[in-house]
Amino acid sequence: MSTPNIPMVGTPSQSGGQPTGEPVRLSVEQASYAYHTKGNTAPMFTLAATSFEARQREIVSILGPNASGKSTLLKLIAGSLEPLSGRVELEGFEISRLNPRTRAQRIAMVHQESPLLFPTRAGEYVLQGRHPYSRMMRFETQNDIQIAENALAQVGATHLRDRWMHEISGGEKQRVILARALAQQPILLLLDEPTLHLDIGAQVELLERLRQLALENRYTVIVVTHELSLAAEFADQVVLMHNGKCLRVGTPAEVYRRDLLEQVFEAPLDVDIGPEGRPRVHIRGTKTGRPAPILMQDKLF
Amino acid sequence: MKALTLSRLLWICGSLLAVLFVVVVVALKVGAVPISIADLALNLGRVILGRASQVPSEYRFVVFDLRLPRIFLAMLVGGALSVSGTSFQALLRNPLADPYVLGVSSGGAVGAIAGLIFAPQIPLVAPLAAFLGAIATIAAVYFLGRRKGQLDSTTLLLAGIISASFLSAVISFLVTTLAGQNLRGIVFWLMGDLSTPLPDALHWVLLAGLIVGVGAIYTTAADLNVITAGEREAIHLGVDVTRVKLVVYVSASLLTGLAVSVSGAIGYVGLLVPHAMRMLFGSDYRVLIPSSLIGGAIALVAADTLARTVMKPTELPVGAVTAILGAPFFIYLLRRRLP
Q1: Which residues of B touch A148 (CB under 8 A)?
Q2: Measured distance CA(A281)–CA(A272) in Å, rounded
Q3: CA–CA distance, B30 with B302 (Å, rounded to integer)
């Protein structure tokens, strides 16, 4: 596949409530990666050089279909992978070079929930967010407890504090997991498909909460998702990924072009602009109610 | 929010130590020759005050030469097995892990027997070879228990059970073909047994190994809490997962190897005790490790006392007692996990 006409990324352009005046916090410069099954063989998957910047109070969505390289890019940002070339920097420090504790004090990751080995109460779970700050044997201080309580309050989960993690609903669990990340007091908050197991009500609630947290706590928030409509709704900046390449970086209005999205997501789509200047995506139907075929177009990438 | 405090930890350990004291007193008292508590107190007092010569010689023999060393050994072995059980549960992400079920005890036994047969001249060959046997077995079980690069809890248990039966066959082979002398002793030892008196020096080696092993595992207690809540997430909470796993893996194998080299394969202590402690005090590893240590001592002293007294004057191997109590508990845990 040829890749003509991909805009190079500089400062994000003006539109919506984008925090352009804020300082740059995360900078991904020409970062690439390759997975090998065995040494000396052709890589199984490569992430081509990718660049973008994210500022304080900004929500960036890394968007793309499955196997597009979203998760690899997220791992580079989280520092769990070291880029093959290029740099991934947080406030000027190369993330993969930070020691794990320091990194955990600055970057928090919200995964899709993984099973707990033993029953744990939500409050204890959130307290684990203080782990990067504790010495080997030290017990949690009153300060740690206060921070954990505040984190629960910020996600509206104070009432869940003494409940068992395995007894609460998916949406509630997601909030508690988010609270643990907040208890880390990070400056960069990463979320990997956070809406995957949530119903639509819980999805909207989570995303509104992220917007609020980005503003109040001055987080930079990076959300990996394949949910087109949700990313359009909450992201200040979208990084569109396809087949291990970064195709576009820009505001949703800039990136959400029908022909581009149809080819990336391989589905017949309609894009229009909503009242707040944000794009909205629909499945393009025919009169029979079935999705229409994808219109044949020039290859865009 | 309730967080663990030092006073809560000390309170828990203190209560368990009090229980341990009571169990030890009972263990000293009952047996083929019953001894009254008043006599026990009197004679213990004499020893503590440095008037050991006033202790009647039959007391000295029964209490100080027979029962006390055996109780001491039961405490060390019980503590070692419980702490290694609770560690393997975290390391392998499997609540049913136990050195016996995983075949680690059998691996240690193969090591110890092979050491005694092939290199009896090396000092401390049994504990050393048992440690090597244990560490090799857990590595094998770990790799056999993976499917598609992930630890699979059922496959892991099967791998452990199959390794255990394979290693038992190796032991039978070694014993029948190579160890001509003292066959009954070895068979008894295989079932788990505390009745063979040890040289004094070995007690101290054992105690030192226990302190080192448990101490090393305890330094990772807070990390283990995070790891049991998700290994992937633990990395993002600043835990050096590889280092923690290595420390726990080596230390837990050391504890199992030490226990097996002196007492044979005593099963289910490493499963029963940590779960009982979790039910009582919660899953925080900062509490779980010391409480399993003391709880394991309590459990094995109690089990050994039963083994000495239920069929008296005939003694059962203590491993038979723990298996009779432990196997049903294992089934209970297994059933409870099923959806």
Answers
A1: 1
A2: 7
A3: 11
Residue B5 has pLDDT above 60, yes or no: yes
* Rounded-to-integer distance, Cα A129 and Cα A240, Å: 31
Selecting from B219, B222, B284 the residue whose C-beta is nearest the C-beta of A131 gives B222
pLDDT band at B306 (very low <50, low <70, confident <90, very high): very high
Residue of B11, B236, B333 to mutate for A, most A C-beta atoms under 10 A: B236
pLDDT of residue A289: 63
Q: Which of B11, B233, B242 to mutate to test the interface with A (most CBs of A within 10 A)?
A: B233
- Angle in degrees, 0-180, between the axes of helices B285-309 and B6-29, rounded to the nearest 10: 10
3-state secondary structure B57-79: HHHHHHHHHHHHHHHHHHHHHHH
Q: Cβ separation of B237 and A80 shorter than 8 Å?
A: no
Q: Is B283 in CB contact (< 8 Å) with chain A?
A: yes
Q: Do B236 and A104 touch (CB under 8 A)?
A: yes
Q: Which amino acid is at B139?
A: A
Q: Inspect the interface and report whether the beta carbons of B283 and A139 lie closer than 8 Å.
A: no
d(CA A73, CA A48): 10
Give A100-118 pLDDT, tens digit per residue: 999 999 999 998 777 788 8
Q: In a mutagenesis test of the B interface, which of A110, A139, A180 is the best target, namely the one with the most B β-carbons within 10 Å?
A: A139
Judge whether B108 and B137 are in contact, CB under 8 Å. yes
Contact (CB, 8 A) for B20 and B301: yes
ipTM score of the complex? Answer: 0.81
Separation of alpha carbons A270 and A274, rounded Å: 12
Whose CA is closest to B263, among B171, B191, B192? B192
A24-35/A107-110 β-pairing = unpaired
- Shortest CA gap A289–chain B (Å): 40
pLDDT at A13: 42
Sign of the Cα torsion A33, A34, A39, A40 reads negative
Residue B275: pLDDT above 50?
yes
Which of A104-118, B174-188, B234-248, B324-338 is predicted most confidently? B234-248
The whole-angstrom separation of Cα B251 and Cα B245 is 10
* Cβ of residue A148 closer than 8 Å to a chain B Cβ: yes
Contacts of B231 in chain A (CB under 8 A): 114
